[in-house]
């Protein structure tokens, strides 16, 4: 009987303290998570990206300001998987596009396409300033 009472007391103590323990480890780290992803080169919705493209007339004819490009990442098996979308903000010189991530997560080395026109997401944002 004493053992059953001890077990019941422990269960009650756990039931009372469990919500506090769960709350203590479930705090939102949105800004820290964004900084960690940015350090890894991952960009999310609203982040600015720089795209390298061929600079040919085909690009300027086929892509305009405000267009949305679909972003693909090559998987280990060689298949290109859609991972996000980028909205074109401006042309930067002859070879670069400045864009904003519209959805998904974009990384350096991803390929942004519209039809047969493609641009490479690069790490050097100085090109797009």
Would you give an account of this structure?
By secondary structure, this protein is an alpha+beta fold. 31% of the residues lie in helices and 37% in strands. It has helices at residues 2-25, 30-39, 57-62, and strands spanning 42-43, 48-52, 68-74, 80-92, 96-104, 106-107, 111-114, 117-122. A 6-stranded antiparallel beta barrel has the order 2-5-4-3-7-8. β3 (68-74) and β4 form a beta hairpin. The longest helix is centred in the N-terminal third of the chain and has 24 residues, at 2-25.
Please tally the β strands and state the result. 8
- Shape call: elongated
From the N-terminal CA to the C-terminal CA, the straight-line distance is: 75 Å
Low-confidence stretches: 20-27
What descriptors fit this protein?
129 residues; elongated; 3 helices; single chain; alpha+beta
Topology:
Elements: H1 2-25, H2 30-39, E1 42-43, E2 48-52, H3 57-62, E3 68-74, E4 80-92, E5 96-104, E6 106-107, E7 111-114, E8 117-122
Antiparallel strand pairs: 1-6, 2-5, 2-8, 3-4, 3-7, 4-5, 7-8
